[in-house]
Amino acid sequence: MSKQKAFAVMPPLERGELIQALAKQARSPSEIRPMAKAVVALSVIFDCNPIRLAPVFDQLLRLYDKSASDSEEVADMLTVATKRSAASFEDMVVAMLVAKGASAPSALAA
Fold first, then answer.
1. What share of the chain is helix, strand, coil (3-state, %, to 5)?
2. Full-model pTM
3. Does residue 107 fall inside a structural domain?
4. Residue 81 is part of which domain span?
5. Mind listing the pLDDT tens digit of every residue in the chain (110 residues)?
6. Contact in structure between 58 and 23 (CB atoms under 8 Å)
7. How crowded is residue 100: how many other Cβ atoms within 10 Å of its Cβ?
8. Count of domains forming the chain
9. 40 CB contacts (<8 Å, ≥6 apart)?
10. Under DSSP, is residue 48 helix (H, G, I), strand (E, B) or coil?
């Protein structure tokens, strides 16, 4: 993962915490890689904490019946939806969760 550009901004210990956060969601190593890449990209774009975003992103994938390999597609969808609306990234994530009947997460900010 350290060879990918998205992870260049993330120190190794924080990268390990991200992997741990995704593993706690019962994700396999093959699922963690694409999810981690998407989570880090979103955290850089929207200046949010990737460790806090990881379980919320996992929940979004599960609620919308998307596989881990669809992580980039879901991240793109979130990015486009946020940029086209007046809502913040956090508000958009909460809206997508609530639309599927889930409760709102705690703050995603750093």
1. 70, 0, 30
2. 0.89
3. no
4. 5-99
5. 556 676 777 888 999 999 999 999 999 999 999 999 999 999 999 999 999 999 999 999 999 999 999 999 999 999 999 999 999 999 999 988 988 888 877 666 55
6. no
7. 12
8. 1
9. 6, 7, 9, 10, 18, 50
10. strand
